[in-house]
């Protein structure tokens, strides 16, 4: 399932998504599970500005929640979804809990729940975990992920969040050429397995 029409992103001659911010590329690396690249971008400041990071992550979070709402996703599935999101973060530096994920998604879906503690302490990591899990739940392709993140950058800019302009250097571009086909292959196998199960 892709993103709404009108949200397509441009590509350069080599097929690399034309994201424009350090925060966008950092979120992309995190969502795709590229740990080396995530750390590499953090050394350049990616993810270290909490305000700029929140803008892009919030843009992606809002977008995937819209996508979930338009899919066959139901709040009755939320416990399983939240468990998958929490497991995504268990080995990381900012683990989140099933309860935190559950409440932030319920709140976005209009449920009367309290999220003040989540917003104070884990606003970015909880939303990032939701985005990463939704990418898998909605069976996004790499192209879908790039569309999602380009839209997230656009929304962040519309909301007034000042992100850091960034264009990948040759080291990052070379790394992506190696690892992205593996991610795409894994997602393709997963979509095929889920299709057979249905």
Can you give a write-up of this model?
The protein is mainly alpha-helical and 198 residues long. The protein is built from 9 helices and no strands. The protein has helices at residues 22-31, 35-43, 50-70, 78-89, 98-108, 116-121, 123-137, 142-158, 170-197. Helix 1 (22-31) runs antiparallel to helix 8 and helix 5 (98-108) crosses helix 7 (123-137).
Number of helices: 9
The SSE string, one letter per element, is: HHHHHHHHH
Largest sheet report: none
Number of strands: 0
**Distance N terminus to C terminus?**
16 Å
Rg (C-alpha, Å): 16 Å
Measured as a percent range, the helix fraction is 55-70%
Query: Uncertain spans, ≥5 residues at pLDDT below 50?
Result: 1-15, 194-198
Mean pLDDT over the residues? 85
Shape: globular
Structural class assignment: mainly alpha
Strand content: under 5%
């Amino acid at each position: 399932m892709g993103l709404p029409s009108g949200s397509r992103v441009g590509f350069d001659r080599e097929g690399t998504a034309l994201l424009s911010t350090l925060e966008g590329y950092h979120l992309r690396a995190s969502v795709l599970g590229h740990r080396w690249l995530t750390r590499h971008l953090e050394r350049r400041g990616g993810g270290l500005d909490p305000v700029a990071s929140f803008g892009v992550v919030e843009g992606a979070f809002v977008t995937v929640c819209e996508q979930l709402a338009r899919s066959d996703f139901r709040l009755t599935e939320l416990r399983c979804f939240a468990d998958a999101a929490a497991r995504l973060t268990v080995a990381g530096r900012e683990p989140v809990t099933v309860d935190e994920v559950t409440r932030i998604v319920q709140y976005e879906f209009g449920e009367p729940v309290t999220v003040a503690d989540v917003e104070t302490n884990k606003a970015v990591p909880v939303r990032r975990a939701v985005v990463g899990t939704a990418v898998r739940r909605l069976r996004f392709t790499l192209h879908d992920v790039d569309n999602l993140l380009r839209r997230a950058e656009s929304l962040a800019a519309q909301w007034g969040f000042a992100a850091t302009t960034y264009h990948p250097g040759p080291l990052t571009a070379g790394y992506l050429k190696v690892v992205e086909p593996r991610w795409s292959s894994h997602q393709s196998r997963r979509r095929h397995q889920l299709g057979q199960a249905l």
